[in-house]
Write a structure and sequence with these properties.
The complex is a heterodimer of chains A (210) and B (115). In chain A, α3 runs antiparallel to α4 and α4 runs antiparallel to α5. Chain A has a single domain, classed as Four Helix Bundle (Hemerythrin (Met), subunit A) (Up-down Bundle). Chain A contains six helices and one strand; from the N terminus they run βαααααα. Chain B folds into two domains: 81 residues, no CATH class; 31 residues. Chain B is flat. By secondary structure, chain B is mainly alpha-helical. At the A-B interface, β1, α1, α3, α4 and α6 of A face β1, α2, α4 and α5 of B.
Amino acid sequence: MADVTIHAADAPAGDDAPDHAVHHTTTGLSNNKLAMWLFLGSECLLFGGLISTYMLYRGRHSENLGPDQVWDIPFTSVSSFILLMSSLTMVLAVSAARRRDDRNTTVWLCVTALLGACFVAGQVYEFTTFYREGLGFTTSLFSSSFYTLTGFHGVHVSVGIVILLSVVGMIVRGRAPSDKAELIEIVGLYWHFVDIVWILIFTLVYLIPA
Amino acid sequence: MTTDAQSEHPAHEVHPQGGHDDQHHWTDMQYIQLALALAVITALEVALSYTKDDFGSFFLPLLLIMMAVKFFAVVFYFMHLKFDNRLFGMLFYTGLFLAIGVYCAALLTFHFFSP
């Protein structure tokens, strides 16, 4: 693919504009990307609050239903590995989109959604197992804060899967915007954010002893 | 699937005002290597959690350092923040530091630091 150099003065406009065209905005940056980073900054606060609450209440449980009794570290480690690899497939989708390789973009987006679905399925299985062991949402402050934190994260992953599949649908039907690479990069930012939140949860919730 | 030869060609060079510096885009192989490194660190974290008694007081700092390395590796390279416009980083880090502030405020509220 030939190198393309675009400068503010000679950037083409309209549907024929190449990917990553210079944005004619006040900041010179893409407003969509700016909005996504602003959203992710606010999401830091949401998860900061939830993680803080869990860390404060992690010791408030009955003797036989605490973290050390219910955690299945090998299983959660595999889930973490799956989500980490989904970040890799997401970045490969972004890379393919920059090359305007629609086929590989679609394939990597589908693989990312599939890995995300595996992670959510693992979380549902984990929640079901904990519930059968007697750890309900209202059993203790520990269980409430744990289910709220990991549940919110699971919802974020599920929303991410819906967004990924929507983008795949748009590409397949030819309804994706002209700046496809930017759209996929923005979706990728959301997906990677979900991954970094899990990096924190995995260490702070699962690996550090109560 | 994707080949390195394809991805080694810089896709587009864009004016810095666009918020992108595509000369810093990694090849697919570099992304794969980073992902493998992150997987190895995750394995080390898990191994460390099983041998925490051997590491004594070093256990917690080691675990937190590995967590921070993974966190910032994804933010810098997968999210491309290291090479992107500084304004994006400011927005994200503001949220991140406020979140840490929320945690400290919560600890103070619950008298976590009181003897």
